[in-house]
Amino acid sequence: MMKPIKVGLLGLGTVGGGTLTVLRRNREEIARRAGREIRVEAAVVRDVEKARRLAGGALHITTDAADVLNNPDIDIVVELIGGYSPAKEWVMQAIANGKHVVTANKALVALHGNEIFAAAQERGVMVAFEAAVGGGIPIIKALREGLTANRVEWIAGIINGTSNFILTEMRDKGADFGDVLKQAQALGYAEADPTFDIAGVDAAHKLTIMAAIGFGIPMQFDKTHIEGIAGLTSADIRYAGELGYRIKLLGITKRTAQGIELRVHPALIPKKRLLANVDGVMNAVLVKGDAVGPTLYYGAGAGAEPTASAVVADLVDVTRMHTADPEHRVPHLAFQPDALSDERILPIGEIRTAYYLRLRVEDKPGVLADVTRILAGREISIVAMIQKEPKAGENTVDVILLTHATIEKNIDRAIAEIENLPSVSGQAVRIRLEELNRS
């Protein structure tokens, strides 16, 4: 057996603790797979006492990152502190010192990945980030290696457990967003400040990374269209159900003749699709390749041991490849760095999809004829329609329409005209609809 590979952890919280536990528990199995032992030597923490209780005595615990970053004995640095700073500075320092890096930090990879990978390429070290997307689901490996024969056509994922839990509860209990969010916070599924999760930012970080690997483009988080779930009502979730759909927060990236779609937003999905049945805090990613067709990756998107599973898999990968010269390793973004493409990212107005529309209209003849005339004028055809009965004493009703696929700017213009009709009150609710079929 070769001498152990030595690891330094930056952070020993939930995932760091899980990583230590998994490495220790499966020590022999991991060594058999990696060809040598993988040993955690040191951890950088804020609370030394707490870390000592967690780690036992066999670990150097420090509050000074330099103890790990500048230690010549440490081969791989695992960054688990999250956020942008000091994570970025520490990762760049580790690379400069010739150390490989494993990270679970999707925000860091999505925003600074291009710079980090370029530095790693130059220094001849690896940066692995399986744990940054989908917790324990090996989606990055699937895209980088398993599907490498394919031209990836599209990727659609439920990649934020918090928002998926909230939408599942809203559907099952008929409850409103605000009430379910409070419950999610009480259960520990949502942070005290849940903005990144419910506004779609966390999902957008992960989608940025998957699009880069799937299509061989640089990370372009700033070009991602992002909408969250705070505006969704239990009424729309119920109406979607009546029409045979479920509403999920989706990250979608698609290759089209005009460019690449890169968007995070709530979407209706047909109930019969596997993705529509991913509930609670679970994550799932559907990847459509030209040769393989649609493939689905499902599992826990967070948690100590699921995420540690991905961190340790990366440690094994880096250990196996440690001695390989850089030209023979799998490139960071699956495509050779000098072969990334500058394909255009489509603005949201140019994407093509179908729509769910909910209108509040006066209960009188001719109103629907006006609405359908406006849609037809924009070449938007209707697939299905429900008109609700007015409640006692009310003279307005909900009308729900599903459209065929169209260009977003066409639907925007049609909605503006419809909202101007005297018989339509308030704003139309518009939610995109994705069939996620083979095409």
Describe this structure in words.
The protein is α/β, with parallel strands linked by helices and 439 residues long. The chain has three domains: 2-136 and 304-338, NAD(P)-binding Rossmann-like Domain (Rossmann fold); 139-300, Dihydrodipicolinate Reductase, domain 2 (2-Layer Sandwich); 351-433, 2-Layer Sandwich (Alpha-Beta Plaits). Helices cover 36% and strands 27% of the residues. The protein has 15 helices and 17 strands. It has helices at residues 14-25, 27-34, 48-55, 66-69, 87-96, 106-123, 139-146, 161-173, 177-186, 195-198, 201-215, 234-242, 304-321, 367-377, 408-419, and strands at residues 2-10, 36-44, 60-62, 76-79, 100-103, 127-128, 152-158, 225-226, 245-256, 259-270, 282-289, 293-300, 352-362, 382-387, 396-403, 406-407, 424-433. The strands form two sheets. Strands 7, 8, 9, 10, 11, 12, 13, 14, 15, 16 and 17 form an eleven-stranded mixed sheet that branches. The protein has a six-stranded parallel sheet with strand order 3-2-1-4-5-6, with helices on both faces. A hairpin with an 8-residue loop joins strand 14 (382-387) and strand 15 (396-403). The longest helix is centred in the N-terminal third of the chain and has 18 residues, at 106-123. It is elongated. The relative contact order is 0.13. The model has no long low-confidence stretch (mean pLDDT 93).
